[in-house]
Amino acid sequence: MSVTTAPSDELRADALARGYFGIDVPFMRHIGLEPVRLAPGLARTRLPLRPELVNSRGHGHGGAMMSALDFTLSAAARSHDPLGLGVITIEMNTHFLATATTDLLIEAHILRSGARTVFCEGDVTDAAGNVVCTARAVFKLVTLR
C-alpha cells in the first residue's frame, strides 16, 4: 500500500484491534495510554491519571503528557496507512498551559502532509474540557512493508 492510499474500513478496524493502532508500544502500555479513535488525519487517546504519573506536587507529570502526545501525534501522522507506515519524530514542541489533575484526553490531527513528512498538532484536555497542554510535531514517514 502506498503512502497516499487510504485503507479500507476493515484495515482500520484491524489496526484498532492490534494494540496501539496497529503496533505494539510497551512504554504506552506502561503509562496506561488507551487508544480511543483512529480516523484519516486524526487520532485520539486517553491517559488515566494514575498516582505513578504525577509530579512532586500531585499534578500530571509533563513527561507523561509529552509521551502521550508524541504517540498520539504520530498515530495521526500514519493514520492513512496504520499497518503499513511507521514514523520517526523529527521535532516536537510542547506548551504546558495548566495543571492536570484528572484523566486526560489527547487528540491530534494532521496540519499538512507531504510524501514523506507530516506536520501535526494536538491537545491534552482534562475531564472538564480545559486544554492543559498543546504540541506540534513533525514526523518522517517510514514504510514498514
From TrEMBL:
The keyword Coiled coil does not apply. Keywords: Hydrolase. InterPro entries: ACOT13, HotDog_dom_sf, PAAI_dom, Thioestr_dom. Transmembrane segments: none annotated. Residues 58-133 form the Thioesterase domain. Belongs to the thioesterase PaaI family. This is PaaI family thioesterase.
